[in-house]
Amino acid sequence: MTPLARLLARRIELAGPIPVAVFMAEALGHPAHGYYVTRDPLGVRGDFTTAPEISQLFGESLAVWAIETWQRMGAPRRMQLVELGPGRGTLMQDLLRVAKAVPDFTAAAELHLVETSPALRAAQAQRLDGYAPRWHDSFDAVPDDAPLLLIANELFDALPVRQFVRVGAAWHERLVGLDEDGDSFRFVLAPGRSSLAAGIAPAHAAEGSVFELSPASLSLMGAIAARVARRAGCALVIDYAGGVGDTLQAVRNHARAEFLVDPGESDLTAHVDFGALARVARESGAVVHGPLLQGELLQRLGVMARFDALRARATEMQANTLASGLTRLVSTDGMGSLFRAMAVGTEGLMPTGFETDGVEAL
Predict the structure, then answer these.
(1) How far apart are the C-alpha atoms of 165 and 290, rounded to whole Å?
(2) Which of 27, 100, 331, 361 has the most CB atoms less than 10 A away?
(3) CA distance 259 to 248
(4) Mean pLDDT of all residues in 194-223
C-alpha cells in the first residue's frame, strides 16, 4: 500500500467506509501524500496532457475571448483576471502574450491564480514572471473589489463527486471500504437509503443505476456566479462532459488505471454535469451561455485564422506540430466534441463566442 492508502485504510478500520468524495479528495489533495501536492502531472513525463500543453493555439484563442469580453464589459480600468487550476501556467502565458497587443487590457488585468500544488506553483511562477501573479488556495480568497474575468480549464472534473446506486425503490450512497483481508479497497453501499439522492436523483431509474453529485463543484460555481452577478464580469468553464451514470476514472502514465488502487498515485476525475452547474449559476443570479463544443468555440474565436498566421512563418516541423495540435483541439472525434465550454456572466453581457445557442439546452 502507498502511505496514503495505509492512512485511509486505518481510517476505515476505525470509523467505517467513507464516501467516494472523501476518498477522491484525499487522493488528490492530501497535504502530504495527495496526487496534486507531490508532483507535476502534466506532459509526456506525467500522466496526462491538457489542451494548453497540446498547442499554443488554445491559449491564444482564449486570449480573443478574454480581450473582447473585457471590451464588452466596458473595458474597466481594473479587473481581476483569474485562472482556476492553471496547470503549468501555459494557458495564461499564451493568453497574455497575445494580450500585449492590447496594452489597456494588460494594464487593467490583476492576475490571480488559484492553485494548491507547490510543484505547479513553481512552474507557473517561472512562466508568468513579469505579470506579478498572486496565488490563492481557494477562489474565496481572490479579492472582490473589481470586475471578474475567470477561466477554468479542466478544473471541475477533478473536484470530488458523491455516488449513489439505485437499489429497489431507493438510492443508497456508494462508499469505499476494505475487502475481507483489509489490504485493498472496494466499493460498498451504505445500508440506509439516501435522503439527499431521493430529492435530486431521477425518480424512475433502473435497478443498479448510478447517480453522481459534486457538492464541491456546485459550491464553487455558486460562488463564481454570485460574484459576477454582484460585481460584474464573466467566467469561462471548459471541461470533459457527456457521460451519465458512473463516470469515475483514474489515469496514470497516459493510460486508464484502477480507481481504488494506490490512491495518491493516479489522477482521479469524473465527467462534469454542466446542467447542474448551469442551474446553480442561474439560481445565484448569473446568466448562462452555452455549453458549446470546445471545437466550435475555438473556431468562433478564430483558431483557424491564427493557425494560418502561425503556419505562414513556421518551419515544416513547426507547421506539422501546429496542424497536429489543431486537429486534437477541434476534431469531432477528439477533444473538439468531448469537451464543452460554458460562460457564466452578468445580465446584459454577451461573452465573445457565445452569440448563438449552444449544443444543448440547460
Answers:
(1) 30
(2) 27
(3) 7
(4) 91
CA angle 89, 125, 90 (to 5 degrees): 15
Maximum distance among all Cα pairs of the chain, rounded to whole angstroms: 65
Give the model's pLDDT for residue 362. 47
Per-residue pLDDT tens over the stretch 255-282: 999 999 999 999 999 999 999 999 999 9
Please state, in angstroms and rounded to a whole number, the distance separating the CA atoms of residues 30 and 40. Answer: 15
Average pLDDT over residues 78-98: 97
Cell of residue 299, nine digits: 473556431
Question: Which residue reads 487522493 in cell numbers?
Answer: 27
CA dist 332 and 316 (Å) reads 25
Cβ within 8 Å of residue 219, ≥6 positions away = none
Q: Where are the domains of the chain?
A: 51-158+214-242+267-343
Interior angle at CA 46, CA 114 and CA 61, nearest 5: 55
Model confidence over 12-26: pLDDT tens digits? 999 999 999 999 999
Q: Is domain 51-158+214-242+267-343 given the CATH code 3.40.50.150 in the classification?
A: yes
